[in-house]
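Chapter summary example: a protein plus heme C.
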Amino acid sequence: MAAAGKQLFEHEWEPGDQLALGGDGLGPVFNASSCVACHGQGGSGGGGPLEFNVTTYTVRPLKSGEEPREGVVHAQAVQAEFKETLAHVHPHLPPQSQPSLRDLLPIPGCNVRTLPFPQGVHLSQRNTPALFGAKLIDEIPDREIIAKERRQRLVAGLATPDVEDLPVGRASRLADGRIGKFGWKAQTASLLDFVQAACANELGLGNPGQDQPKPLAQPSYAPPGLDLTREQCEQLSAFIASLQRPVERLQDDPVKRAQAEEGKGLFHAVGCAACHTPDVGDVKGIYSDLLLHRMGQDLEGGGSYNEPPLPGPESDAGTGAAPGEWRTPPLWGVASSAPYLHDGRAATLTEAIKLHGGQGDRSRQRFEALNSGDRQKLILFLETLEAP
Ligand code: HEC
Ligand code: HEC
């Protein structure tokens, strides 16, 4: 299963592909033509560079009676007639299919974007995460994540997860009652579900778990049939599940090694481990609580892949994450997965830490208050967390 899945993961898909029996193959809209094109850093299953960021959008209605819309602007199309651009999201946006992250982010200090968003419209991007260790995350029982949520509330004196400055996360409860564990917004409960969504959303390969997206340029397009069988999706899942987990590799140099060990202590002391908890259940060294945290206004990013309902009251199941909420990313493998944060805006580990706001703000301040030697030790510790 895993060997067959590896082939599918590395396969360059084409329109009318011979492996896509019954369907239209790649596209008509897609973000890349193979899984490994994005997930290739340090081998099949790794993270990906900024060039392969995926652009998501949210449009909130300005008049009552209109429905909110959200989804992905696909970077590519098999033919010009299907090509999606920002102008399909809103007529005041340019006919551009693949904006760069810099087009979408306010410039620090002057707070304007090169691309102004029309009222009610929000564009953001997602950077490709690495998949090493995904099997272990898949196997974590929901109750372990709920236990983390309860513990953070207790520690914070029964605070609710809408507090802006304490590390009190919430489990992502999906409409069907399961807990979301995968994705930057913890929007998906299982590895197989995510694989099916990725096949459809990234490559335009419709399958029994997820229809391929309808091109914004031609919403009436209907594919001749499904591109993938359930078995092919299970093979892809089996391949990802076969990837080794990340490792903690201490430096050879004894001085650096001692400093990294001290850095680990500092990581706990300044409060990083409140969210980046070393263990979840039996999974050791993951450095995440898998909970959603409010990370402040600068990190807001709406839009989604799976079109869940837009966020409503925080306590309701299935309402999705708020724009400022993100799942604590596991830090295992972090030394090998730059750039950082949901859209890859941070080139280095230090930048990623400095961009923590909201519930991460206190811990960021304590990090910045350390002397430069201690900050360096903490970074040396993070640098021991490598891809397998
Ligand atoms: C265009 C780049 C791109 C391609 C191609 C791509 N992915 Fe991804 N992948 C992403 C991004 C971006 C995310 C994060 C999405 C999110 O969280 O909203 C992701 C997330 C994932 C995750 C969840 C990881 C986690 O820990 O949350 C899985 C599993 C995955 N992809 C599998 C696949 C498979 C299988 C394929 C091929 C069918 C594929 N991806 C193709 C960019 C890509
Ligand atoms: C309130 C919970 C919380 C605390 C406390 C916290 N983090 Fe984070 N961390 C997050 C979340 C959530 C993200 C993802 C934010 C995003 O992508 O926009 C993140 C992202 C990161 C990343 C980028 C990872 C990646 O794969 O892109 C690093 C590195 C990191 N944190 C390190 C730290 C360190 C070091 C500390 C302590 C100084 C810390 N964090 C404190 C929640 C937290």
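Key point: The pocket of heme C (ligand 1) is lined by residues 31-32, 35, 37-39, 52, 54, 126-129, 131, 134, 182-184, 191, 194-195, 198-199, 202-203, 236, 240, 305 (CB under 6 Å).
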